[in-house]
TrEMBL record:
Residues 174-254 form the PPIase FKBP-type domain. Its main location: cytoplasm. The gene is MCYN0725. Its EC number is 5.2.1.8. Belongs to the FKBP-type PPIase family. Tig subfamily. It comes from Mycoplasmopsis columboralis. This is Trigger factor. Keywords: Cell cycle, Cell division, Chaperone, Cytoplasm, Isomerase, Rotamase. Involved in protein export. Acts as a chaperone by maintaining the newly synthesized protein in an open conformation. Functions as a peptidyl-prolyl cis-trans isomerase. One of its GO terms (cellular component) is cytoplasm.
């Protein structure tokens, strides 16, 4: 009764049931007779109209559609069961989505009806060789002196350089500059490229790449022409890959003045559990090593996911990311309302159209869904059991304030990445194991 057709190219599997004429007609005739009872013919009492008049007023197409729906519902569960069976035999997986139902006449016997139930297949990421993916993993050495300076700055005060005193002092990375700027493309000012008394933290990378770097080493009151190129993925499409010049005036800049890490400071900060600059440095380094370990492995895993998606040419049915797309649309519209901007004003500002914005949001939703699918695959293949309290009860970190959640999270992440690396790049396994052991006493 059922025939199956696997199409790996389209990532679909169809199960077709043939409804023979001798099965279809009785159901059709039953519904036809029921319809006759509801027909009213002007001038005749119910049940007294000639059959010919009644038949002329029956909606044959509606009855035919209802009969087809009957058989589609009747065989739906069996068809899905058959699809699952066929998928298992062919080593593929069916996505948990409703089947697409189509109906056509049989080419071999036009009296028969063919009802096809088509399910979407999950992409087979097992076909991708992880060893061929180019994903690096590198632990950056901790800069102990930098950590000390950052710590001392947080407890210090801000020093203002406005040109009146220390006029020769120049800006450094980490300073916050108060600036006016106006941008030009092809010597023409562009919308949204101008601001006055804007506070910009140098080194924060919050502006176009290269912008902040050109403001380092400058004095208060100095005027600077900053030359940059807009990134290829800049949110204003018309500006992408274009060169621009910004006229910038530095009104002033502030710099965090570090507190002196002396005996008095440590007496006033007993909660740190240290009594000297050396002990503080060790504490900061141990904490940073934990954060860096977690961040490095997390970055590796995210990059691996992206490379896996690219290598597999992953395609997902639109219905799988419909909710994500609608959520992004809502967030986009809510953001405009929050800032009191009308949609047409925004579209004019960024020189785009509603259709382009929708396409970009749909692309972002699809990317998010693909990454989630790839992540679930990797977790299913390489993730181990949940880390429990007893797994870390004897694990002692050099950083005394590491809690149980940190220990469990790092151990799970370490095990996951090591399992992946055994297949993807075995030469990196020892590096990860050593980095983990360096966290421990």
């Amino acid at each position: 009764m059922f025939t199956t057709n696997l199409d790996k190219q389209k990532q679909s599997l169809s199960v077709t049931v043939t409804i023979a004429e001798n099965e279809f007609l009785p159901e059709f005739e039953k519904r036809f007779k029921e319809a006759l009872k509801t027909v009213k013919v002007p001038g005749f009492r119910p049940g007294k109209a000639p059959l010919k008049e009644l038949e002329a007023r029956v909606n044959y197409q509606a009855i035919h559609s209802a009969t087809v729906d009957h058989f589609a519902r009747k065989y739906y569960a069996q068809a899905i069961e058959e699809a699952q069976k066929s998928a298992k035999e062919n080593n593929v997986s069916v996505l948990p989505l409703p089947a697409n139902v189509t109906v056509e006449e049989s080419k071999e016997n036009k009296s028969d009806l063919l009802i096809s139930f088509t399910v979407s297949l999950a992409p087979n990421l097992k076909e991708v060789e992880l060893s061929k993916l180019n994903v690096s993993l590198e632990f950056t050495p901790v800069d102990a002196e930098k950590l000390l300076h950052e710590f001392a700055s947080r407890f210090g005060s801000n020093q203002l350089f406005d040109g009146s005193e220390n006029a020769d002092e120049v800006t450094k990375s980490g300073d916050t500059a108060l600036i006016d700027f106006k941008g030009f493309i092809n010597n023409e000012p562009f919308e949204g490229g101008e601001a006055q008394e804007y506070e910009l933290k140098l080194g924060s990378n919050s502006f176009i790449p290269g912008f902040e770097d050109q403001l380092i080493g400058k004095k208060a009151k100095e005027q600077v022409d900053v030359k940059v190129t807009f990134p290829k993925d800049y949110y204003v499409e018309d500006f992408r890959n274009k060169e621009a010049v910004f006229e910038v005036k530095i009104h002033s800049f502030t710099r965090a003045k570090e507190v002196e890490l002396n005996e008095e400071f440590f007496k006033n900060m007993p909660m740190l559990g240290v009594s000297s600059k050396e002990e503080l440095q060790e504490l900061l380094v141990n904490r940073e090593n934990i954060q860096q370990f977690n961040a490095t492995l997390d970055t590796y895993f995210k990059n691996l996911i992206e490379e896996l998606v690219k290598a597999s040419n992953l395609v997902l049915p639109e219905v799988l990311y419909k909710d994500k797309f609608e959520k992004l649309q809502k967030n986009f519209n809510d953001s405009l309302k929050q800032f009191g901007v009308k949609k047409h004003e925004y579209l004019k500002l960024v020189k785009t159209t509603e259709e382009k914005v929708e396409a970009e949001l749909k692309e972002a939703a699809a990317k998010e869904a693909k990454n989630e699918f790839a992540m679930q695959y990797l977790l299913g293949e390489f993730g181990q059991h949940e880390i429990k309290d007893e797994d870390v009860k004897d694990v002692n970190y050099k950083f005394a304030f590491a809690d149980e959640n940190v220990k469990k999270n790092n151990l799970y992440l370490k095990n996951l990445v090591v399992n992946v690396l055994k297949q993807a790049n075995p030469s990196l396994v020892d590096k990860v194991e050593k980095a983990y052991s360096d966290l421990l006493k």
